[in-house]
Amino acid sequence: MHNAVQLITYVDRLAVDLSGVAALLNHEFAGLFGGVHLLPYFTPYDGADAGFDPADHLVVDTRLGDWAALRQLSDQIYVISDVIVNHVSSHSKQFQDVMQHGDKSEYWDMFLKRSDVFEDVSGDISVDAEVKKVYRPRPGSPFTTITLDDGSSYDFWTTFSPQQLDINVESPAGRAYLESILTKFEQAGVQGVRLDAAGYAIKRRGTNCFMLPETFEFLADLQNSASRRNMDVLVEIHSHYQTQVEIAERVSTVYDFALPPLVLHTLFSGNATALKAWFSISPQNCINVLDTHDGIGIVDVARSGQRSGLLTDEQTDALVTEIHHRTDGDSRLASGQAASNLDIYQINTTFYDALGRSNNLYLLARAIQFFAPGVPQVYYVGLLAQENDMDLLERTGVGRDINRHYFDAQEIQAAVRKPVVEALFKLIRLRNAASAFSGVLDVIDGTDNSLELGWTQGANTARLSIDFLQSVGDITITENGEIARYRITETLRSVT
User: How high does pLDDT run on average in the chain?
Assistant: First the structure.
């Protein structure tokens, strides 16, 4: 994986199709990115969960292109694609075969049933209590009762929604299904895979069915399969920060999902103590983000039971309240029980709106991201400093659509001319050009109201200093004996 800023985007919401993505990377976004993470482009890309419920994971939706078009893109740039590990659509041919043939279907064992984990035991009243321990990102039961064509009914495991049937990844059929995806990606030249919802893949009675010891074994095995195909692996897990640190020790790459809420907390409070504490223990083998296709994770910094969080309970509550305030309540309308497809641990808003559309704070946030450990990834909506799409939210009722705008060519042309976007593009190019970011990071001691991060590789250095009370940042880059200085305020300007 190249140590350069990456783009994460839906194909259709930014560029209509795969050839459109290639055109943007060659023109409007030329020289900005070392890789692109394409969110699900499989058939269909616009299902019940914006492509994360594929009916056919092995077919590119023809409205977006085909595998040949993806191969052309992967020949041009490093491409990451999603392996949706935990589930498949109820409209998939595999589940439709189960609907028709029941336990005679060749795919019967591919789908996880309640009885596969919680065997019916006469008089055992503890089962319901154990089911309540199951961790899932949305409230309610993890099971959906489905009646097959022959009239028989079964409780199928549906961690995310009734349209997303959990795969029994430990069955031969389930494992063969996942291997077929990796093979197809290899043929298309995909260089990196993101394992989506992987933490839920293994279920055991008497546990919360999330990130079990057996899950780590499963991930290691799947990672080995990808590595044999010369593909990097990125594991997507939202969880308590200590779990994230543990996961990072056992897989090749993880997300730093704690960074977005910590950056917001720091900019809101003017106090960098929590952020600096995180940098002292955070994984180095990570993709760091401020925004993604999902919301801003709160679980990643909050208390979990008896385990304290990166933020105190009071700080967590204040963070959520301030986000809602700075978005003028828009994020409240898009989060929790106010919207469908809800996630109980995320706040839905664009990152630009979370900061009250302050160009100054937004550029400071991106500077922190680019100086943080790991490879930075920028979401297409954030790249163009887009505001909350309340019209789309109203039309769909899906909370996360507030941050999933559909751009047309004219909007993109207008966005790239905005001063804040021009400054962000300049920051991206600075990050990509400075060789110091392949070296060692030093979190420099300072006051609670300041942050100083310094990268060093040999004689080359990159240093970021931010005064949060004044909302001013300074960047100094030393490259091959030449020194360049920049000041971050409402924009990014060179300082002589």
Answer: 94
Task: Clarify whether 236 is annotated catalytic.
Answer: yes
Domains of the chain, residue spans: 6-85+173-436, 93-165, 439-495
- For the segment(s) 6-85+173-436, the CATH number from 3.40.50.1000, 3.40.30.10, 3.20.20.70, 3.20.20.80 is 3.20.20.80
The C-alpha angle 213, 310, 440, rounded to 5 degrees, equals 85
What are the residues whose beta carbons fall under 8 Å from the beta carbon of 374, sequence distance 6 or more?
256, 283, 284, 285, 286, 287, 288
114 phi, psi to nearest 5 deg: -55, -40
Cα–Cα distance for residue pair 218/169, rounded to 1 Å: 9
Distances (CA, A) of 383 to 181, 202, 218, 476: 30, 35, 35, 23
CATH number of this structure's domain 93-165, picked from the four choices 3.50.50.60, 3.90.550.10, 3.90.400.10, 3.30.1360.70: 3.90.400.10
pLDDT the model gives residue 341: 47
- Among the listed residues 49, 196, 232, 300, the single catalytic one is 196
pLDDT band at 124 (very low <50, low <70, confident <90, very high): low
The pTM (predicted TM-score) of the whole model is 0.95
pLDDT in tens, 455-489: 999 999 999 999 999 999 999 999 999 999 999 99
Catalytic residue selected from 232, 236, 389, 452: 236
- Match 């091959």 to its residue by tokens: 480
CA distances from 460 to 187, 463, 487, 494 (A): 39, 10, 19, 19
Q: What percent of the chain has pLDDT over 90?
A: 87
pLDDT of 45 reads 95
DSSP annotation of 399 reads G
